[in-house]
Each structure stands twice: as structure tokens, then as C-alpha cells.
Amino acid sequence: MSRTLPDLSLYLVMGAADTGKRPFEEVVLAAIEGGVTVVQLREKDADTRVLLEHALRLKALLEPRGVPLIVNDRIDVALAAGAAGVHLGQDDMPASIARRLVGEDMLIGLSVSDRVEADTANPDIVDYVGIGSVFPTGTKADAGEAIGPDFAAKLRRRVGLPAVAIGGINQTNLGQLRGTGIEGIAVVSAICAADDPRLAARNLRAGFLA
Amino acid sequence: MSRTLPDLSLYLVMGAADTGKRPFEEVVLAAIEGGVTVVQLREKDADTRVLLEHALRLKALLEPRGVPLIVNDRIDVALAAGAAGVHLGQDDMPASIARRLVGEDMLIGLSVSDRVEADTANPDIVDYVGIGSVFPTGTKADAGEAIGPDFAAKLRRRVGLPAVAIGGINQTNLGQLRGTGIEGIAVVSAICAADDPRLAARNLRAGFLA
């Protein structure tokens, strides 16, 4: 394959609505300065044109800084924006079909929350997984019950692919994820809702890598 | 170009929710027997996986009967399902980007409702337009005010592309669309909500082509 997996250690998931009154570029830029290594654009209710515009604006911000842009769910938007990858939930396009559409150069991430889902992650097709929700979260209405760090570690071993933990991760609980073998943490509100997204990102990354 | 424009005379727009308690295949099959010439799948709120499943089920129904499947908005789903085309609204992917993603074989339709939108329909990229809403409609919340048959005729002349009229068309008002130069009528509820979709389709087509 011709794609390289990025540093997954601090994976920001965001949409324009997540940054409240602040322009999303301002928050994302601060987050990158603080150490975010990947940005996933996730906007479930946006019109395609708006989503594409946001993807292009993000890409213009990320590319010069060497941070890859991942688009959630929407392969059409990922292709149109020239994103580095697409992230698929269990209700999105099946990964095998997605791989056919995006070719060999684009990263594919897959959300998994149990053993059955983990077993569907074909390492010939999927590049990394998102494991969660590890902790209770208010950001994603359909996230299901929290699986906890121990089970997340089991899923990481079972799936045998690089992974980010996601769901309710914050400065207080992230220590529970060290030693799980999971490569990174994915956050929304811990950065997007922080008074100082740059400091929040720096503390999250330092806390996880400590 | 390697694509052929289908007979646009009776263009059914539908999603699984539009057929109420009846399975959508039952309604679509009856509609085809009644003379529907194109089917567009439009489901704005469905998860990608569900939308793809519906597209594949529709395609299995339509292909043996020589009726092309158009997918609304979602280029990813159109590509994954092997649809004949994609229909773009003004809030969807810009047509020039869509053409790059779908290649030269897939049809692209574009919704236009005024002169400015009509003038964006590049005949090198777009194959046909949907003009509307011609009459007041309850099916599409964001359809805007009805433009009426006379203005629809003006837009048809201005755009210079094959067109379907859409919006609130029924057996009673379709006569007003004859002589407009518009090639076909697009309907949702006039078929999907009809007690007898086969008879409704037959009467609509006969009434329009009379």
C-alpha cells in the first residue's frame, strides 16, 4: 500500500458546531499548536456543499502544518477535498466498498465497540480503528454505553491494528488509557469546548504520552 | 461523452419513507408498470449504509426493467451502487467537482429554480435539469416558492438542456406544463401516496404526453 499511517497520539474530532461561537479555524489552529496530530471533520447534518467548504478550509489550514485531514463518513467529500482519509462508523459505507471507491492512497479508519465489530476490521482494507466509547460521553447521541479502558485494551489486542480510544476522554481519566496498547486518544469537547484549546491539547497529549 | 440521456417523461423521486407502510419496492414496481421512466432515490436523513442498501435494492429492481436509477446528492452512494446518475441540488456538491468524481459515464442532473441557477448549468458537465418548484408542494421543506409553468418554460429555454418539471405536480395541474418545452414531470407524492401507484403513473404519463 502507498499510504502511511500518521501519528495518532492526539486525534481531534470536530465540526463547525463543536467550537461554539469561535470560528472553527481558530480552535483548530490553536489545537494544532498544542499538539493535535490528526483532525477528523465530523458534521452529520451539514449540506454537502457546506461540508465540502469546511473540509477545504480545514485542509488549507492543516496541509501546510503537516496534519492530515480525515473526513467522517462522507467518501464523496473526502475525495472532493483531497483528504488524507475517511473514517467509517458501523452505519456508514462498508469498508470494502469504501476501499474500492477511495483507492489505495487514502486512509480508512473504522469505529469498533465490541468483538464482532473488531473482527470485521480487515487489515488489508482498514488502516486504524477508533475504539469506544471508552468513557460516558455527551457529544455523540448514538455512542452507546461506555466500554471502559480494560475492554478497550482487549479490543486493541484483538483487532491488531493501530487504534485511537474515543468517548468522554479528558485530562482526569486519560491516565486509565496508558498501558492499554492504544496508540492515541480522540477527543471532541476536551479541546473544542476548552477555554484554551492550545493548552488543552498540550496537556492531553502530555498526559497520554507520559 | 459516453452517456445517453434516458426518457425523462415520468421521473419518480422517492425514498423509503415516502411510500408509508407499503414496502418501497412494491410501490416502485407498480410505478414502473404504470410507465415511470426514471427513478431518483432521495433520502436526506438516512445513514449511509441504509441509503446504500436501498440504492442496491432499487437497482436490482430497475436494471432488469431498463429503468435508470439516479441517486440524489450522494455521489459516494451513486458510485458504490453503480447508479446511472446523481442528482445535485444547489446545496449539494458543485457539478464541476461531481463530474470529476463520477467520470464521464454517469448522468448528472441539477436542480434550478431561477435564472442565476439556470446559468450555472454547464452543458459540458450537466446532462439535464430539474426545474421547480413549479407548483406549491408539501413534500420538500426547502423547495422555496412555486415559480409557475410560465417561468419554468422560460428557464427551460434559457438553460438549453433537457428538463423535468418538479414540485406539486398532479393529474389536475399537469396540463399546464404541456407546451413549455419541458421533457418530463418529476413527482413524489402523486405516485408514492396514490392508492394505486400503477394507475397514477399511467394517468400522469398519459396526461403529460397527451
UniProtKB/TrEMBL annotation, chains A, B:
Lineage: superkingdom: Bacteria
GO cellular component terms attached to this protein's record: cytoplasm
Gene3D superfamilies: Aldolase class I (3.20.20.70)
Chain positions recorded as 2-[(2R,5Z)-2-carboxy-4-methylthiazol-5(2H)-ylidene]ethyl phosphate binding sites: T137, G138, T139, G168, V188, S189
Metabolic or biological pathway, per its Swiss-Prot or TrEMBL entry: Cofactor biosynthesis; thiamine diphosphate biosynthesis; thiamine phosphate from 4-amino-2-methyl-5-diphosphomethylpyrimidine and 4-methyl-5-(2-phosphoethyl)-thiazole: step 1/1
EC numbers for this chain: 2.5.1.3
Alphabetic keyword roster: Magnesium, Metal-binding, Thiamine biosynthesis, Transferase
Cofactor note: Binds 1 Mg(2+) ion per subunit.
Record-listed Mg(2+) binding positions: D73, D92
A biological process from GO: thiamine diphosphate biosynthetic process
Domain Thiamine phosphate synthase/TenI: 10-191
Chain residues that bind 4-amino-2-methyl-5-(diphosphooxymethyl)pyrimidine: Q40, L41, R42, E43, K44, N72, S111, K140
Co-factor(s): Mg(2+)
Record GO terms (molecular function): magnesium ion binding; thiamine-phosphate diphosphorylase activity
Reactions catalysed according to its record: 2-(2-carboxy-4-methylthiazol-5-yl)ethyl phosphate + 4-amino-2-methyl-5-(diphosphooxymethyl)pyrimidine + 2 H(+) = thiamine phosphate + CO2 + diphosphate; 2-[(2R,5Z)-2-carboxy-4-methylthiazol-5(2H)-ylidene]ethyl phosphate + 4-amino-2-methyl-5-(diphosphooxymethyl)pyrimidine + 2 H(+) = thiamine phosphate + CO2 + diphosphate; 4-methyl-5-(2-phosphooxyethyl)-thiazole + 4-amino-2-methyl-5-(diphosphooxymethyl)pyrimidine + H(+) = thiamine phosphate + diphosphate
SUPFAM superfamilies membership: Thiamin phosphate synthase
Similarity comment text for this entry: Belongs to the thiamine-phosphate synthase family.
Function (record text): Condenses 4-methyl-5-(beta-hydroxyethyl)thiazole monophosphate (THZ-P) and 2-methyl-4-amino-5-hydroxymethyl pyrimidine pyrophosphate (HMP-PP) to form thiamine monophosphate (TMP).
NCBIfam families on file: thiE (TIGR00693)
HAMAP family attached to this UniProt entry: TMP_synthase (MF_00097)
Name of protein: Thiamine-phosphate synthase
Phylogenetic placement of the source organism: Bacteria, Pseudomonadati, Pseudomonadota, Alphaproteobacteria, Rhodospirillales
Name of the encoding gene: thiE
